[in-house]
UniProtKB/TrEMBL annotation:
It comes from Peterkaempfera bronchialis. Belongs to the thioesterase family. Signal peptide: none annotated. It comes from the Bacteria. This is Thioesterase.
Length: 263
C-alpha cells in the first residue's frame, strides 16, 4: 500500500509536491493546503509510520531511520515530472535531510521548503516539549503550541495513541545532530515561519541560508507555530505556490511550452 494520500491523481502533472507533516500529525492535516494548489499539480501527502495509511506500522523514533524510509518512499516518484518537497516542524527536518539523501542518489528535488523549524545549529529558540513529560504536562505544552483538537480529552484511547506518537517524534527531533561540516544542498530553499512562533522565531530562519548553495528565501506570516493550518492558511498556500513557481520557473515554463506547442 502506498504511504501517500493523494487527493488528486494526475498522471502527468506539471509538478509533484511531497508534503511532510508535523510531530504527532498525519498527511490528512494538509488537505486544506492541497485545495489551493494549481489544478495541474499533484500532491503527495506522506504518512510517517504509525499513523494514517501506516497506522499498523510501528512508529520510528530515530531521524536516520525516518529519512531512510522517506527517501525510499519518494524515489519511485523522482523519475518524472519535477518534484518539490515541503515539510513543517518535524517534517521540515525530514524534508531537508531527505532532499540531501535524494541528491546523493542523483534524484534531487527542484525545491525544498522548510516551515516552523529553526535552522540547524540555532540555539536561541524555545525548547520543544520534552518527550519524558507526564501526559498532563505534555498535553499542556502541545496546547500552548496550538493545532490541537479541542475535544481530544473526550477520546482517551485516541489521546493515548496520539501522545505515544508525539513522544516518539520528539525523541527523533531531540536526538537529531546534523554534521556541521557537510556540504550545502544544491537546491533552492525557502524557510517559512510565523512572528509568534517561539519554537522557530523569524530570526532563527535566516540561518537556513547556510544549508543551500542555491537561492535562499525567507517568508514570515502572522500567527504561531501552526500558522499554516489556521485561518491564515490560504495566504500561506498562495505564498507557497509563488515560492515554488519562482524556484522552478524555467523548468515549468519549458514543460508548459512543450505541452502547448503541437508537434
Amino acid at each position: 500500500m502506498s504511504p501517500f494520500v493523494r487527493p488528486r491523481r494526475l498522471d502527468d502533472p506539471a509538478l509533484r509536491l511531497v508534503v511532510l507533516h508535523h510531530a504527532g500529525g498525519s498527511g490528512a492535516a494538509y488537505f486544506p493546503l492541497v485545495r489551493s494548489l494549481p489544478a495541474d499539480w499533484d500532491a503527495l501527502l506522506l504518512d510517517l509510520p504509525g499513523r494514517g495509511k501506516r497506522h499498523a506500522q510501528p512508529p520510528l523514533e530515530d531521524m536516520a531511520e525516518l529519512v531512510a524510509r522517506v527517501t525510499e518512499d519518494i524515489l519511485p516518484w523522482a523519475d518524472g515530472p519535477p518534484l518539490a518537497i515541503f515539510g513543517h516542524s518535524l517534517g521540515a527536518v525530514v524534508a531537508h535531510e531527505t532532499a540531501r539523501a535524494l541528491e546523493a542518489r542523483g534524484a534531487s528535488p527542484v525545491w525544498v521548503g522548510v516551515s516552523g523549524r529553526a535552522a540547524p545549529g540555532w540555539q536561541g529558540a524555545a525548547a520543544l516539549p520534552r518527550h519524558d513529560l507526564s501526559d498532563t504536562e505534555l498535553m499542556s505544552r502541545l496546547t500552548e503550541m496550538g493545532g490541537m483538537h479541542p475535544r481530544i480529552d473526550e477520546l482517551p484511547d485516541f489521546r493515548e495513541r496520539f501522545l505515544d506518537l508525539v513522544r516518539r517524534d520528539l525523541r527523533a527531533v531531540a536526538a537529531y545532530r546534523p554534521d556541521p561540516a557537510r556540504e550545502p544542498l544544491g537546491v533552492p530553499l525557502t524557510a517559512f515561519g510565523a512572528v509568534d512562533d517561539a519554537w522557530a522565531p523569524p530570526r532563527s530562519l535566516a540561518r537556513w541560508e547556510q544549508e543551500t548553495c542555491e537561492e535562499f528565501r525567507q517568508r514570515t506570516f502572522t500567527g504561531g507555530h501552526f500558522y499554516l493550518l489556521g485561518p491564515g492558511g490560504a495566504a500561506f498556500t498562495a505564498e507557497l505556490v509563488r515560492e515554488i513557481r519562482h524556484a522552478v520557473r524555467p523548468g515549468l515554463a519549458d514543460r508548459t511550452a512543450r505541452v502547448r506547442t503541437p508537434v
